[in-house]
């Protein structure tokens, strides 16, 4: 499903974020990429959505070699990968419904279909009664659930969650992780980027540990050991 | 797909305009002020044009014929002069008409009235009053009048008296026009910079949103079009506000203009009505083009996500 082959990424002036990374993620997997700040885990997430490009190596997502992806193709890639961010990245002047609908509107989905699907997905994340709220009227956990609903609306095969619990308390964090597990159960590949030891250890799923831009451990049922 | 995208762009533009109403109003306010300052310049130009035209209209050349010249000869000269392309209008004043006007003007002067009674017959002669199309045409007309065939017929010409004045007015009006053009250009450049920066600031406040839209898979065109439409919409609104304010101010000022400019016929509302499409159409077109360029340039910076 996702292949990073000999990937190296350096940021100016001379910060090596990733060194010759080889990572293969199978369809339907739930994988946690862990490591300390600056270890390169967010760089992987940014590479996967073509926000940045590798200096060396090859990246394949869903059979699509995105290493030298053209600018006009980037929106198509991003519609195939659901992304959840630590800071939610919701549009502040749009309602919950509109935020989720926006992800469909960008790909020209008709209004009638949007009106049918969006409430369904928001119901799954338990926000069926808050369609007309604005982001500032929601709690942190609710905002993140809106972000997850938006990420899922395209029925992506991959869900990329970059520190999704970073701004949440323990209870909300657990709810979000449970939601990600549920999504994974339906067959979606989930890539969780996190530095939260407790959460990663509680998952009992594959853990890839990054240290100074290199993979130091890759365990089938792993733990965050740094 | 294209129709859906256009509809959505329009809807997003209106939605964003309304939901960011204070930003929208601030943008409209600044662009309206720019419009008003440009139209203030238009008003100044209209006033100076009217003043120049009024002064020009007061200038003419009078040819006073000798007393024994027959009317038919004067009519012949008139017909000849009328063939000149530089001539706008020639008015013939007969000796009788000249006398009547003279008597009227001097009706309070007893001595003149008595002298006229003592004289036998009309001491005044025929006159031709010639108006040129342009001030610069007078020398050509004078050259035609200086024809040796007419020299013996003409008693005197008024042009010799105010030749210097005409030359001075010509220079002054030309300088005023050049000055107005330079000031207009400066105003347009300043206005363009104000609008450009206003739009940039409006887009800057949306930079985070633009980044989010990119991350959820929106194409540059899909992101760009609502912002451009929103700014074009603000420009149109600002133009409407400026038109309303200008007409309101003119309706208050118009009744006092004739007194203020000492009888000069100055109908500013009429001027704006007559040139409505040119004045406001060109400004509206300018603001739309400027908004599209400013929005596109400002957005480009934030679309590289």
TrEMBL record, chain A:
Task: State the annotated membrane topology for this chain.
Answer: Peripheral membrane protein
UniProt keywords (A-Z) are: ATP-binding, Cell cycle, Cell division, Cell membrane, Membrane, Nucleotide-binding, Transport
- What GO cellular-component annotations does this UniProt entry give? plasma membrane
Looking up NCBIfam families in the UniProt record yields: FtsE (TIGR02673)
Quaternary structure note:
Homodimer. Forms a membrane-associated complex with FtsX.
Task: Describe the function of this protein.
Answer: Part of the ABC transporter FtsEX involved in cellular division.
Q: What is this protein called?
A: Cell division ATP-binding protein FtsE
Q: Which organism is it from?
A: Candidatus Buchananbacteria bacterium RIFCSPLOWO2_01_FULL_39_33
Gene (name only)? ftsE
Automatic annotation (TrEMBL), chain B:
Query: Which residue spans traverse the membrane?
Result: 21-44, 180-206, 227-250, 276-299
- Do the record's keywords include Membrane? yes
Protein origin, superkingdom: Bacteria
Q: What is this protein called?
A: Cell division protein FtsX
* Pfam families noted in UniProt: FtsX, FtsX_ECD
Protein family: Belongs to the ABC-4 integral membrane protein family. FtsX subfamily.
- Alphabetical list of Gene3D superfamilies matching this protein: 3.30.70.3040
Q: Report the GO terms under cellular component.
A: plasma membrane
Any GO BP: cell division
Presence of the UniProt keyword Aminoacyl-tRNA synthetase in the record: no
Where is it localised?
A: Cell membrane
Q: Where is the ABC3 transporter permease C-terminal domain?
A: 182-297
Keyword terms of this UniProt record: Cell cycle, Cell division, Cell membrane, Membrane, Transmembrane, Transmembrane helix
Domain FtsX extracellular, first and last residues per copy: 60-146
Per the record, membrane topology reads: Multi-pass membrane protein
